[in-house]
Amino acid sequence: MCDAKSSRPELLGAKAEAAKQKIMRDRPDVEVTVVPVDSMVTADVNTKRVRVFMDTSNNKVVKVPKIG
Fold it and tell me: Contact at 8 Å (CB) between 33 and 41?
């Protein structure tokens, strides 16, 4: 996948579930998880993971989704 994206700034402000589906379509090789922005998460780096951080008040993406 030479043209695979590692970050998705265009999804900032999108609905979290729609962003997850878009990433999964474009990058079926990674695990995509939607988490509330204030959630505790591990600090490890995983090249097969994308976390979509959302605001629970409106379900919109509040951090740029990226590999890691």
Answer: no
